[in-house]
Amino acid sequence: MMIPSFIPAKTTIVYITGFIEVAAAIGLMIPSIRQITAILLIIFFIVILPANINAAIRKVDYQKGNTEGPGPTYLYFRVPLQLLLIAWVWYFGIWF
């Protein structure tokens, strides 16, 4: 529900992003590819942010699977969280 309506193959995209998340988790645990994985994960976080903004505008409720969620106020939590995740991945995956 959070992927904009003009984008085709939504189910496939959901599976691909899930695979990316699992692969990134594994990649961060392997020292030889940790840095490149962290860079790609930061790009991934930036790329998926518009989907979160779209979901907030459409008031998607993730727990119920309907459009009766909190709406844009969700972004007051989600955007700072996304920035925190980016900083966290940068610190532990690239800098540390």
Write the layout of secondary structure elements.
Blueprint: H1 10-28, H2 34-57, H3 75-95
Helix pairs in contact: 1-2, 2-3
Brief characterization of the structure:
The chain has one domain (10-95). The protein has three helices and no strands. The chain has helices spanning 10-28, 34-57, 75-95.
Describe the structure in your own words.
There is one protein chain. With 96 residues, the protein is mostly helical. It has one domain. The protein is 67% helix and 0% strand. The protein is built from 3 helices and no strands. The protein has helices at residues 10-28, 34-57, 75-95.
Number of helices: 3
Indicate the proportion of strand residues. Answer: under 5%
Task: Characterize the biggest β-sheet.
Answer: none
Number of E-type strands: 0
Q: Work out the radius of gyration.
A: 15 Å
The shape is globular
How many domains? Answer: 1
Category by helix and strand content? mainly alpha
Mean pLDDT: 92
Feature tags:
3 helices, 96 residues, 67% helix, single chain, mainly alpha
